[in-house]
Here is the input.
Amino acid sequence: MEKYISIVEKNGHLMYEEMKHVAELLFNEETNEEQIIQFLNALSKKGETSHEVAALAAVMKSYAIDLTPASARYLDNCGTGGDGVNTFNISTTAAFVLAGAGVQVAKHGNRKISSAAGSQDVLDALGIHSDYQTTDMQRLLEQEGIAFLFAPAIHPKMKRIGAIRNKIGKPTIFNLVGPLTNPVSLETQFTGINRPDFIMEYASVLRMLGRERAIVVSGAGGMDEASLAGQNEFVLLDHGDLIPFSLTADDVGLEYAPLSAIKGGDAVENAATTRAILNGERGPKFDTVVLNAGIGLFANGQVATIQEGVKRATDSILSGRALEKLEAVIAFSEMIRQKAVTQ
Here is the structure.
């Protein structure tokens, strides 16, 4: 590790094969923890490249537990996190909206690491536990068209790395690779990153990983999701082409709102926000969810424009279908828990 730490601390970039070797060392239980921390901090300070991100993602996915549900056009809408904006859990809420609109959602997620409440913390507060077997996840995905894939259960090699990330307490390259290591074979993806200078490179990583169609966003105000607070920057990956574009809330029929209007709290508070939105409570939080769900629908190829996607997402909520998906996943979770108790 010393060799690679030295290269990175001198602002040198690692080639793809070099980073694959480092990735193997990161997942090796014998590698010194302080060296891992030193490497991750140095890499974050230098700034990660697309080759470094792609190589780590490839190695991490190779260690994931196999998850092969019935063939479908699955979408993940997990962002990189770590934007420091402390909003409510937008992508988790949007996942139910997408599922209610007919998208097959295989969403990666974790507990809080560099945020106030991670997606799994909020799911716990909603009554959706994380202790599923792989077969349970596959069954839920096939039955309801939505499943939340708890990263530590899918990536057993990440247990030690997760503890190290908690020690570091700020975003690392593992935030960047999280959305790239879904064990389900994804044709489409909508993900976000709070680095507008990196969205083209991140989209190129998705192309390297074989996505047919995907969208990367860097949101106004430094968000890793689309925001109502100004101009959002995007790259659309469409069958190998990388197409940059931008839009504001007004472009898709929504109203401007500052970031302060979508602040979140702890897991319980954010779970209440998710329920309120899925029950049709209008306002900036509702609009932020339908904006992001609308982009997800566009990324999945369900609609021809993002504006049409926003309308479909709004209908998913107001028709009650998004809330039905939430209740169905809660019921499935409870059934699995009761089954475990009686065995």
User: Anything to note?
Assistant: The mean pLDDT is 92.
